[in-house]
Recover the amino acids of this structure.
């Protein structure tokens, strides 16, 4: 009976993670409101999800804001660019769909725009996690993200399905926006971290202390 109320009990640990996911989703949502901060918020969302919720290192709000500040400039640029491109694609999809309904000439264009949207969607899945973990210039960030998308295509498709399902579910049940952002990020990180470990430098040797908090290698 005493184990039931033990804070190390599996039930309490699970509820603690659920609360952290809920809190992190709310923090992320608030930081996305100015629109221009969507990029840094997405970057910080991934960083805090993996480091705090999965690896249990640091404190949720502090780690989120740490990543938010460190990656603000590049994250904001990427976020604004993606927002603009998605907006243009949305108008293109609406126009090509209307053209398709009017005559068959719009059909190929609609297919092309769907393909471009899917490619951009997959790119979006990688770019902010990559930004949260690697220190690189903008051009290199774009190159590495595209290469990862292509090289790890099965994982890319799986993560795209998870994220798309979360977006669709939130569209039908708006209240899910308070939990699915961090929850879907958590699920995707299970695949993303396996990919990242292939590109991470290992420690200097077994048992050696590098003096760095290499939580990402655990």
């Amino acid at each position: 009976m005493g184990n039931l109320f033990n804070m190390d009990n599996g039930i309490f640990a699970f509820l603690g993670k659920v609360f952290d996911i809920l809190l992190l989703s709310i923090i992320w949502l608030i930081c996305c409101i100015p629109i221009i901060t969507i990029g840094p918020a997405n970057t910080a969302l991934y960083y805090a999800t993996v480091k705090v919720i999965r690896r249990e290192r640091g404190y949720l709000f502090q780690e989120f804001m740490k990543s938010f500040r460190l990656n603000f400039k590049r994250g904001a640029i990427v976020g604004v660019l993606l927002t603009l491109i998605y907006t243009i694609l949305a108008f293109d999809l609406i126009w090509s769909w209307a053209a398709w309904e009017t005559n068959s000439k719009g059909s190929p264009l609609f297919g092309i725009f769907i393909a471009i949207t899917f490619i951009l969607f997959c790119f979006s899945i990688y770019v902010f996690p990559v930004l949260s973990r690697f220190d690189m210039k903008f051009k290199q960030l774009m190159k590495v993200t595209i290469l990862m998308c292509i090289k790890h295509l099965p994982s890319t498709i799986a993560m795209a399905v998870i994220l798309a399902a979360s977006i669709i579910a939130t569209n039908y049940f708006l209240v899910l926006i308070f939990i699915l952002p961090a929850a879907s990020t958590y699920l995707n990180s299970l695949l993303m971290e396996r990919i990242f470990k292939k590109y991470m430098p290992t420690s200097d040797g077994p048992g050696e202390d590098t003096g760095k908090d290499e939580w990402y290698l655990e």
Remarks:
- Helices lie at 10-32, 38-54, 60-70, 72-102, 106-133, 138-151, 153-172, 180-196.
- Confidence is low (pLDDT under 50) at residues 206-211.
- Residues 72-102 form the longest helix (31 residues).
- The chain has one domain: 12-196.
